[in-house]
Here is the input.
Amino acid sequence: MANSVQALKRAKQAEKRRQLNASQRSAMRTSVKKVLAAITSGDKEQANAAFRVAQSKLDGYARKGLVSKNKAARSKSRINARIKAMA
Here is the structure.
């Protein structure tokens, strides 16, 4: 447990940040799952719409450092390839 006032404050800030990161990571994963569900169902229009949302979230969270830029790019590339293969 933190002993000084500064350490207590940092511990509180770290916990707040951890919870925010966890919720954002969850939202990102959910958006990706929605795209994959649309691909599985065979609805290309819905998959494209969901992909636009997921792409935006992936880019935003990569910019903020929640995920690495390479992971975001890799995820977008793989999802896009699956959407194109639906044709």
